Amino acid sequence: MINIIPVPKKLIKKEGSFSLENVSVFTSDKADRRVVRALTELCGEISERTGAVCPLYSAEPRGKAIKVTHGDGGSEAYRLTVSEDSIAITSDGAAGAFYGIQSLRQLIKAGDVPCLEIEDEPDFPYRGFYHDITRGRVNRLEKLKKIADTLSYFKINSLQLYIEDAFLFREFEGILTEDEAMTAEETAEFEEYCHDRFIELVPSLSTFGHLFTLLQSDRYNYISELGAHEMTMNYWMEKQWHHTVDVYHPDTIKVIGSMLEQYIPLFRSKYFNICCDETMDLCSGKNAGKDKGEAYFHHLTKLIDIVKSHGKRVMMWGDECMARPEAAKEKLPKDTIVLNWCYRKDVNEWIPKFYSDLGFSQIVCPGCSSWDNFIENVDVSTGNISSFAAHAKKYGALGMLNTNWGDFGHVCNFNCNLYGMALGAEKCWNESAPTDEEFDGAVNSLVYGTPDFDTVSTVRALAKASETCNWSRFVMWHSDNCLNRKNTVLSYGEGLGADDAKRNIDACLTELSKLRSHGGSSEILDDIALAAEALALMNREVLYANGVEGYGDGAALQADFDEWLERYSAAWLRGDKPSGLPRLAKFIKHITEIPIKA
Q1: Nearest Cα to 469, choosing from 543, 416, 565, 556?
Q2: How many CB atoms lie within 10 A of CB 117?
Q3: Which of 64, 203, 344, 596 has the most CB atoms around it within 10 Å of its CB?
Q4: pLDDT value at position 596?
Q5: What domain count does the chain have?
């Protein structure tokens, strides 16, 4: 089997193979430095596999060689030809040559390269990944670089980091530390790192709603629509569902404008995502009774003017404009790119058709379906990403931005949503590529590094086992019982009960046993194993909270949570700043103390 993600548009397999022994690599001395860097990486991987030095030349060598050449255009298309005595990668552009190299890097993982011809190009010019670093996990710079390496390996060409309060703006002095946010120096270094891998790092900043840390502070709550808001839900729910600016206070645009002016210069991207989604408190506090549509565009147009004054093209989430189509048609500049999101398993065609009919450029935004639990839901993300991609192609979208949110404390490690990441890469390069057993096999080999173990099946089984112990449902139940004293019952999920939770505990332990007996060890498998343990514990917690006989030993359950938490915390700190971990750890340390309905 030939494993390449994304699947090439045209691949013809031929007889024979190219041996990696005694091979050299050649590219022109005029080649883009980023292509040269990628070839240096390729040489290192060949050398590691063969045990012999694989040299890189700028003058055409004699003997068996890998030759990479490209033109000066912007093409992302490439041609890869493998014969028994040579490999050639050609493209009209440096990006195309880079993507041909990524395909070759994937091919050599299996050893000698089969003779073949590939002609390949992407369906969409914009192939993005959206990564939340603001709702719990702030990645360390080295982890962000690993994420960029992974994305470029699968031909993703754009990355956005979701920022509310995960950057050290001047406005957060004395409020946040480097343990909770990125610095300007880290951001600039990461931007350069992404550029070297043909990834455009697009800035994304909340500028309207979702500004909990800013607007809850004593310093700035006076520009909040709700003023000095008294929290009625737990932290994670409040952070997501409140905290919209007072659009008519004259200081609001000064404060948000200051943040924009600090952030914009760190990026060479031609785009800027101002977010402006889910303005849930709009005209529900100080401006109650005023027209929400007028208030929304009053602030929005000011933001757009600031961003465009820097020569940037505005991106923004489309939900609020979708609720006000006539106002959007009249007041939203036509060069705005709408980020059109939907996370249902089957995306209705009217959603991308809506903005197509209004005449706006759009990027469709499905998701990895990992933000409300310890493991991604592959069944949901497969339908969501695949259907959205098909509609995007039909309605001429610029591309796809696959989202990885961190709602409810971002309990899901990045390594536990890799299937959705890879599927997004597949579908925004080759929309018609099937999501079948061959794709799963490629994911096992190229994503999880387990060609001899079906990690995909384990992830699917764990997602199924999580249905009775959904983390977000648990957090909302906790908020109701502990803050609002509602004394409600913790649901197992629609149509599910205690017997299902018991079976799911067994399923988690079975998959955990498979992972441990596999014999291999990697950070990816270790993190999936931690998720399996978490789901077994959470199912026990649901049974405990419902007073099921045989699951009433809260002290033993808490002790098992504590032991797991030590290893989970170590895994968190391996790649992430402390950020939201202390809050999450405190919550889990008292997870069995939530009042139980009699």
Answers
A1: 543
A2: 16
A3: 203
A4: 60
A5: 3
Phi, psi of 399 (to 5 degrees): 165, -155
Count of alpha carbons within 13 angstroms of residue 357, beta-carbon side: 9
SS3 at position 163: strand
Tell me what pLDDT residue 598 has.
44
Q: How many CB atoms lie within 10 A of CB 56?
A: 17
Mean pLDDT of each 10-residue bin along the chain, 598 residues long = 96 97 95 98 96 92 92 97 97 98 97 97 98 97 98 98 98 96 98 98 98 96 92 89 95 98 98 97 97 98 98 98 94 97 97 96 98 96 98 98 97 98 98 96 97 97 97 91 77 96 98 88 93 98 95 96 98 97 96 69
User: How far from the centroid of its chain's Cα atoms is residue 290's Cα?
Assistant: 37
Q: Which sign, positive or negative, has the C-alpha torsion 32, 35, 37, 39?
A: negative
pLDDT of residue 62: 82
Distances (CA, A) of 560 to 143, 237, 416: 29, 26, 22
Do 18 and 86 form a contact (C-beta atoms < 8 A)? yes
- In this predicted structure, what is the pLDDT of residue 595? 58
Q: What is the pLDDT of residue 597?
A: 52
Q: Domain of 85: which CATH number? A: 3.30.379.10
Which residues constitute the domain of residue 39? 10-120
Q: Give, to the nearest 10 degrees, the angle between helix 141-153 and helix 418-429.
A: 40
H-only helix segments in 163-310: 184-195, 212-216, 235-241, 250-263, 292-308
Q: Is 584 in contact with 561 (CB distance < 8 Å)?
A: no
**CATH, residue 287:** 3.20.20.80
DSSP letter at 315? E
Question: d(Cα 209, Cα 224) in Å, to the nearest integer?
Answer: 10
